[in-house]
Amino acid sequence: DRGAFKVPMLRNVAETAPYMHDGTLATLEDVIRYYERGGDPNPWLDEKMKPLELTDQERQDLLAFLEALTGEVPAFTKRAPRLPPDVGDAP
Description:
about 0% strand
């Protein structure tokens, strides 16, 4: 798993800069350009990583989609989950 990391969810991604596991990309536009060029050469770059060939419209649409994932987080997701009682607590 060298070079592997957990991928975060996209909810409110427009508000979570900087991007990438090491914070090297400052904007979502930078992230799109990164993937358009197929990433940066490194020993752990997956061979399946290929440059994207996006049109200007596709690039704008992708950015608009990512920005559209921004919204108010529902209150029920902010509170601690209700856990079942410990087995030792059962009558």
